[in-house]
Amino acid sequence: MFITIDGPDGGGKTTQAERLAAHLRELGTTVHLTREPGGTWLGERIRELLLDRTGSTAPTDPLADALLFNAARRQLVRELIAPALDAGDTVVCARFADSTLAYQGYGAGLDIAMLRALNDRATDGIRPDLTVLLDVPVEAGLARKAPGDVTRFEAEYDLDFHRRVRDGFLAIAAAEPRRVAVIDATRDIAEVGEEIVALVRARAAAGEPPARGVRIKG
After folding, report:
1. What CA–CA distance (Å, rounded) separates 162 from 137?
2. Which of 37, 68, 139, 176 is the most buried (most CB within 10 A)?
3. How far apart are CA 107 and CA 161, in angstroms?
């Protein structure tokens, strides 16, 4: 399976991705845990450019952001995700293409159809079998961020931007309910983690989604 953990800032994506990967490994599953942007040498260098706000004198153009995110995404898919899925392994990734739609599309106003086409090109049409959307109110999520974890996106953008981002994630979930499951991330970490595990078990037991990433042709 290809499972992504996504959602607004402060939802606990990294923590829950780590917990899920650890649980699956205890069951004997071969799991590759990764993140976006990052996960490869190139992706980690791009991550530094995208998230670091030191030395910035002007806002970055949203399309430039989208292109950089997709450059990192392309390398991650080709180097790690596609080979792992082809080998029958499971991939758990903190953030994926939905974040570009939410942040650069719904948040910054870029054309959604254009971003979807860009995402599809970067990923060779590979989409997650399951996306866990950790939903949290904007004010609560941003308040959870430690000073050292604040990125350019928290520093440069206002609350209205982050509200649009959250609304965008929820719109994606409403449009794709079979792929995207919304989970209330305001609760205790362990409680959220248990719900994610139960969700993955239920999907696997039902034989849905498939045992490898969904590849969209076109």
Report:
1. 10
2. 37
3. 5
Tokens of 203: 């999907």
What is the reported pLDDT for 142?
72
Residue among 92, 88, 96 at smallest CA distance from 123: 96
Contact 161, 108 (CB under 8 A): yes
Give the sign of the dihedral formed by CA 50, CA 83, CA 198, CA 19: negative
Residue length, the chain?
218
Q: Which two tokens stand for residue 25?
A: 């490994």
In 3D space, the residue among 184, 73, 188 whose CA is nearest the CA of residue 136 turns out to be 184
Indicate the pairing of strand 126-127 with strand 214-215: antiparallel
* Segments in the chain below pLDDT 50: 209-218
- Distance between CA atoms of residues 23 and 193, nearest Å: 10
Q: Angle 147-61-5 (CA atoms, 0-180°, nearest 5)?
A: 55
How many CA atoms lie less than 13 Å away from 205 in the CB half-sphere?
A: 6
Reading phi first (left if > 0) and then psi (alpha if -120 to 50, else beta), residue 143 is in alpha
The confidence score (pLDDT) of residue 216 equals: 41
Residues in contact with 122: Cβ distance below 8 Å, sequence separation at least 6, in sequence order: 70, 71, 73, 74, 77, 97
Separation between Cα atoms, residue 83 and residue 146, nearest integer Å: 35
pLDDT of 176 reads 96
